[in-house]
Amino acid sequence: MTGMGFTMTEKILARTCDSPMVRAGENHAVRPARMIAYDFPGYTDVMFRQMREDFGITELSDPSRYVVFIDHMLTRNDDKEAEVHKVTRDWCEFYGIELHEGRGIGHQLTAELGLAIPGDFLVHFDGHISGIGAFGALGWGIRRDLIEAWVTGQLFVDIPATTRFDLIGDFAPGVDSRDLVHTIIDLVGADGCAHQVMEFGGTGAKTMKIDHRQGLCGMAMFTGAVSAVFEPDEISLSYAKDVARREFEPVYPDADATYAARYTIDLADVVPQVVQPGSARAANTKTARELAGTPITKAFIGSCASGRIEDLRAAALVLDGRRVAPGVDLNVVPTSQKVHEQAEREGILDVLRAAGATIAVSSCDFCFGYQKPLQAGENCISTGVLNISGRMGSSDANIYMGSPFTVAASALAGAITESAQTVEVGR
Which one-letter DSSP state was computed for residue 305? Predict the structure, then answer.
């Protein structure tokens, strides 16, 4: 896998430091274009206090590099919520930091607000920031080191190696990037890309909708990867040009770049996958067909990985003219206000409501069990990002994960089912 050229990650990180070129395995001080966080007890409130009390920082040299989102703990309207958000508002006002509250999930807003600029490097304490790789930007979750970046404006990192995925073909009906994520995990293993970046390209990558690219990149951590990036193309660059806050120069890998490993995947071979309760690890995933008949009581379509317009369109395609099974509670959470409004205009939400779905305001609250938590003994099928015990409520509930197609079809059947086999998808 050796060559003289450079990967996308090496090129992006070289832009952020004082070295004209960097190689995987080297250690460099890098300066992110943006440093992002959402408020959450025990994280941002601690970091805010450390910056002022421990480091004596009363003024930021460039506040425009900092962005904070309020997208968690928005649905109970109690005193605890109010205090968490007040700390964040006061802190952002003090330092002059850009703050967005209640507009949607921050990982999606990062794209909508023109912050996911191709060729840029962004950091967050949440690893799902990797979703911005859909636009050819490098988003890296640095939970323990974010305070270093926020205090000094830079951080030292080991330049990660890259595993390349050449995608060909196109998805079959009823299949999307959530199924591809777990196909990849099954192929390389749950640590197959450990401490690396996943790089996607090829003719199949160009057939993927931008929403599906975001979902795929946002789940990169479940291969052990620190991030993921797509080669920029007409689709991603068109989106970026419409929203970017400044001119940009996209980054492309060299033809002779050095990769830790390289795989070719035909999207036509991907089939509906379901992750069993416990984790997103490869050994815990089966095809939807293998798990068909497993009863469910709850279904959830949303999260930073799967609540965008294409995901809602998929659910509406399956549910149009039908009703969810008796005893199944289907909840749908658009990823942002903008997505919510678009789905309303297109009539998608009317279709979902007619099928028996409850449409909730955009936030992260369903995904981490804060809103309508699961009760003991319940089985839920979800497009959330994690299904460890207790993630969505009771530790005695079971969480299965699948694509919006599979979740919607399972809500109709009252049990896990394979959407393309049980519903006339695309009729």
Answer: T
- 153, 163 Cβ separation under 8 angstroms: no
Cα(256)–Cα(6) distance, integer angstroms: 7
H or E stretch at 200: strand 197-201
The alpha helices in 136-249, defined as continuous H runs, are 146-152, 177-188, 203-207, 210-218, 234-243
pLDDT of residue 281: 61
How many residues are listed for the chain in this entry? 427
Nearest residue to 219 via CA among 165, 178, 174: 178
Q: How does pLDDT run across 142-181, given as a tens digit for each residue?
A: 977 788 899 999 999 999 999 999 999 999 999 999 999 9
pLDDT tens digits for range 361-396? 999 999 999 999 999 999 999 999 999 999 999 999
Residue 287, exposed/middle/buried by CB under 10 A (0-12, 13-18, 19+)?
Answer: middle
- pTM for this one? 0.95
Q: CA torsion, points 305, 293, 322, 300, in degrees to nearest 10?
A: -30
The Cα–Cα gap between 337 and 352 comes to: 17
Q: Is 202 exposed, middle or buried (0-12, 13-18, 19+ CB in 10 A)?
A: middle
Task: Identify the DSSP state of 375.
Answer: P
Q: CA 63 → CA 94, 129, 150, 189, 245, distances in Å? A: 11, 20, 10, 40, 15
Nearest alpha-carbon partner for 308 in 134, 136, 60, 51: 134
Beta-strand relationship, 27-30 and 155-158: antiparallel
pLDDT digits (tens, 9 = 90+) for 84-109: 999 999 999 999 999 999 999 999 99
Q: What angle do CA 346, 352, 355 make, to 5 degrees?
A: 140
Torsion of CA 388, 375, 303, 207, to 10 degrees: 70
Gap between the Cα atoms of 151 and 54, Å rounded? 10
How much is the CA Rg of the chain, to the nearest whole Å?
21
d(CA 131, CA 329) in angstroms, rounded, equals 28
Q: Give residue 389's identity as a one-letter amino acid code.
A: S
